[in-house]
C-alpha cells in the first residue's frame, strides 16, 4: 500500500495544484490567494501539511543577459518564424515543488531526455501573440490576457500544470522589453511571441506529468501581405477531419496542427491555398486552415449578416475572432467603424455549405474571410466544393468592405494608433 501511495502522489499533487489554481480566492491564512509569494510549498500553519504548490513568481526572476548578441538581419529579409531574438524565458515545474524561479537567458537549444513525455505523447500546448513598437518607442501587446487564459485552458486539457496568468504576462513583458530592439520600426512589422508548455517527465508511462517546462521565444516578423492583399482559395472536403465532438479541437495543442499538413498539401496540388474544414452530414463549416471563419450574407431588408460558426469542441476560441465580434457588435451599438454597413447583424451560428451555394446563386454571398494572429484577416475569393468552385466577391483591393474595415480597426488598436483597453503597454515593466 505504501508503494502504491508513493507512486500516485505526483499525480495527486498535480490534481491538487490544478484545483487550487481554479479557486477564485481563499482565506489569507491558507496562503492561496492570488499573488501569494513563496519559495516553497504552502503549508497548513497548524499541521505543516502541504496544501498548495508555489505559482509563477515574477519577483524571483533570474536575468542572465547574453554575452554574444546576434546581428539583427534587415527587416526585408525576415521570413515568418525563422529568425529569433537574443533571449528566451524558461520556467520549470514539478509536482513536488511547483513552479520554480523564472529565468530570462540567452536563446539556446533545450536539453531533453529521450524519454520525455512531450516526445512520445505530444504533451504540448502553445500560444501565438504579438508585440508592436510605435514611433515614440512605446511597445504594446494585444490582449495578452486572452492568450494567457487560453494557454491555461489548453494546459488543463493536456494534463499540464496551470499558472497565474498575470504573472506570466508580466514575465513576457520583461522578455519583450529586453529584446525590444528586435521589433522592426517599419509599418506592418511586429514581434511574434510563442509561449509553449511541454511535459518533460522522463518516463514512457501514460499519465499526468510530474515535470514540465514553460518557455517563451520571440521572432521578428514582417507584414503578412508584404506585396498587397491576396485572397486565398479553399478546398472544402470531409476527406480529413480537424476536430470532433469531445475532442481537443477547441484547445491550442500541438497535436492539432501536424496532422493538417497532408490535407493542406493535397489541397495545394488541386490549386487551393488551404482547407475549409467541414463536419457532419450537412457539411457544416468549422475553420479555415488554422484560422477562424466568417461569412457575410446580404439580407432581404438591405442589411448584412456577419456569421461565424459557434464555439464548441470543433472551433478554437481565437483572440482575433473574439476581437472582430466585439468590434462589429460595438458598431451596431453606436461605436461606429467606417466602412461597416449601418444595418449590420452579427451571429454565431451553424453555417452549412448548401447555404453558401444558394447564396452564390441568388447573389447574397457578400464576403468570406478567416481571422488569426498571423494575418489578422485573410480574405477568401474561391471555395472548391463537390467538383466546382463557389466564387466570392473581394473588391478591387482584394478585400471586401467588412474585412477591410475590421482589419484596419484591429491593426490600429494593435499599433496604438487608436487607444484601446486591448492594447497593453509593456514599457512600464521593470527589468
TrEMBL record:
GO terms for molecular function: L-isoleucine-2-oxoglutarate transaminase activity; L-leucine-2-oxoglutarate transaminase activity; L-valine-2-oxoglutarate transaminase activity. It catalyses: L-valine + 2-oxoglutarate = 3-methyl-2-oxobutanoate + L-glutamate; L-isoleucine + 2-oxoglutarate = (S)-3-methyl-2-oxopentanoate + L-glutamate; L-leucine + 2-oxoglutarate = 4-methyl-2-oxopentanoate + L-glutamate. GO terms for biological process: L-leucine biosynthetic process; L-valine biosynthetic process. Its cofactor is pyridoxal 5'-phosphate. One of its GO terms (cellular component) is mitochondrion. It comes from the Eukaryota. Its EC number is 2.6.1.42. The modification N6-(pyridoxal phosphate)lysine is found at residue 252. It is an enzyme of class 2 (transferase). The keyword Transferase applies. InterPro entries: Aminotrans_IV, Aminotrans_IV_CS, Aminotransferase-like, B_amino_transII, BCAT-like_C, BCAT-like_N, BCAT_family. Belongs to the class-IV pyridoxal-phosphate-dependent aminotransferase family. This is Branched-chain-amino-acid aminotransferase. The lineage of its organism: Eukaryota, Fungi, Dikarya, Basidiomycota, Agaricomycotina.
Amino acid at each position: 500500500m505504501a508503494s502504491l501511495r508513493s507512486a500516485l502522489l505526483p499525480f495527486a499533487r498535480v490534481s491538487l495544484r490544478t484545483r487550487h489554481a481554479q479557486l477564485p480566492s481563499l482565506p489569507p491564512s491558507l496562503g492561496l490567494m492570488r499573488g501569494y509569494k513563496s519559495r516553497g510549498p504552502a503549508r497548513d500553519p497548524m499541521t505543516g501539511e502541504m496544501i498548495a504548490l508555489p505559482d509563477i513568481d515574477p519577483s524571483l526572476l533570474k536575468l542572465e543577459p547574453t554575452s554574444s548578441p546576434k546581428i539583427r538581419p534587415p527587416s526585408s529579409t525576415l521570413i515568418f518564424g525563422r529568425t529569433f531574438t537574443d533571449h528566451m524565458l524558461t520556467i520549470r515545474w514539478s509536482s513536488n515543488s511547483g513552479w520554480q524561479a523564472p529565468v530570462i537567458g540567452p536563446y539556446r537549444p533545450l536539453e531533453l531526455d529521450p524519454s520525455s513525455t512531450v516526445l512520445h505523447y505530444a504533451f504540448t500546448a502553445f500560444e501565438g501573440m504579438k508585440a508592436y513598437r510605435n514611433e515614440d518607442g512605446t511597445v504594446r501587446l494585444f490582449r495578452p490576457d486572452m492568450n494567457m487564459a487560453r494557454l491555461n485552458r489548453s494546459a488543463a486539457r493536456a494534463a499540464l500544470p496551470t499558472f497565474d496568468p498575470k504573472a506570466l504576462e508580466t514575465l513576457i513583458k520583461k522578455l519583450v522589453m529586453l529584446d525590444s530592439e528586435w521589433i522592426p520600426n517599419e509599418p506592418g512589422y511586429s514581434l511574434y511571441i510563442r509561449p509553449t508548455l511541454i511535459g518533460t517527465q522522463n518516463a514512457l508511462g501514460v499519465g499526468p506529468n510530474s515535470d514540465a517546462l514553460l518557455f517563451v521565444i520571440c521572432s521578428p516578423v514582417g507584414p503578412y501581405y508584404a506585396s498587397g492583399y491576396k485572397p486565398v482559395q479553399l478546398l472544402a472536403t470531409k476527406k480529413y477531419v480537424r476536430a470532433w465532438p469531445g475532442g481537443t479541437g477547441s484547445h491550442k495543442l500541438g497535436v492539432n496542427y501536424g496532422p493538417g499538413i497532408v490535407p493542406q498539401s493535397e489541397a495545394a496540388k488541386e490549386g487551393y491555398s488551404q482547407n475549409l474544414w467541414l463536419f457532419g452530414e450537412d457539411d457544416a463549416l468549422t475553420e479555415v486552415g488554422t484560422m477562424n471563419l466568417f461569412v457575410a450574407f446580404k439580407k432581404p431588408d438591405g442589411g448584412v449578416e456577419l456569421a461565424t460558426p459557434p464555439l464548441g469542441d470543433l472551433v478554437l476560441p481565437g483572440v482575433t475572432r473574439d476581437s472582430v465580434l466585439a468590434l462589429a457588435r460595438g458598431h451596431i451599438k453606436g461605436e461606429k467603424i467606417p466602412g461597416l454597413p449601418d444595418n449590420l447583424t452579427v451571429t454565431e451560428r451553424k453555417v452549412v455549405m448548401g447555404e453558401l451555394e444558394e447564396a452564390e446563386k441568388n447573389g447574397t454571398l457578400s464576403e468570406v474571410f478567416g481571422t488569426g494572429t498571423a494575418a489578422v484577416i485573410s480574405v477568401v475569393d474561391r471555395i472548391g466544393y463537390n467538383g466546382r468552385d463557389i466564387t466570392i466577391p473581394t473588391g478591387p483591393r482584394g478585400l471586401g468592405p467588412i474585412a477591410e474595415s475590421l482589419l484596419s480597426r484591429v491593426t490600429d488598436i494593435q499599433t496604438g494608433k487608436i487607444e484601446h483597453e486591448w492594447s497593453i503597454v509593456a514599457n512600464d515593466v521593470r527589468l
